[in-house]
Amino acid sequence: MLSMVQVLVSDAWVRAAITAAAGLAVTITSFWALNRITPYLGRTALFICLRFFLQPGLGEAMFVWSTKSPDGPRLQAWQLGFVDCFGALGLLLGVVLYNRHLTGFSYRRIFLVIQLTFFFSQLLEVVLVLRWNRALGIPDIFFLVGDDTFALMASRMFSVVFSVLASKVCPVNLEATLFAVLMAIANFGWAVSNFLGVALCEAWGLVDGNFDQLPEAVLTKALTRLLPIPLILLTPTFTPQDPVPTNLKAEVEESQEMMEEEKA
Residue 96 half-sphere exposure, CB side, CA atoms within 13 Å? Predict the structure, then answer.
């Protein structure tokens, strides 16, 4: 339905309002439903959905600017492949860093570090768009390699930590179903983020090859990476390698008993 809205509604602000309303509706109802099972589950769903929701991207605007704009790097195909290779290295580094250095920290501290990493990686895009890297004597290709590796490393760390958290907060005997529900909520939040990103591009006039306000758009995108930081308080205080806390087990058993009584 949201995809149809993007096609049929021409006004960017109306599309953004409808998309935001739908996103909030799904977020609230998901939290209400899952919170009845266990509070940890409801809070995790609320955190992941709002985190994606509050971080719109710029779609293909950066790719078009970096390959076709006269003011951009005008990357060629072999250069894009070179950048992707180091992006894959960043994914590997994200897994290694998580396994070796982050598993002993609480979820809140890990998510805070990752979110700040996302923010600073977006600031690198601001530097690139303003061409400050040229003033510093850094060629575009090397700057892009570092930016892509840095961003994908943070992305992989987040996906690993979130997957571990999602598996831990799912009650016994319901792991597969509720884990799938959490992944679906995350995918929905990501879709809403993309749709809002299109509206953001139009708001800054990034249409028909016009990139006059691209620095402002990239800076706006970077600042939105700070919005999910207060939401980190919704995540548990224990660490990924800790067993499920006793109070969580009690909450799960109590919620299961309530569900059985309702069925009876």
Answer: 8
- Alpha carbons 104 and 107: distance in angstroms, whole number: 9
Tally the domains of the chain.
1
Q: Is the whole-model pTM more than 0.70?
A: yes
Contact between 189 and 44 (Cβ < 8 Å): no
Please check whether residue 185 is in contact with residue 48, taking contact to mean a CB–CB distance below 8 angstroms: yes
**Other CB atoms closer than 10 Å to residue 28's CB: what's the count?**
12
State the number of CA atoms in the 13 A half-sphere of 13 facing the CB: 2
Q: For 51-71, what is the mean pLDDT?
A: 80
CATH number for the domain including 225?
1.20.1250.20
| Residue with the larger pLDDT of the pair 185 and 74 | 185
Q: Which domain holds residue 231?
A: 2-263
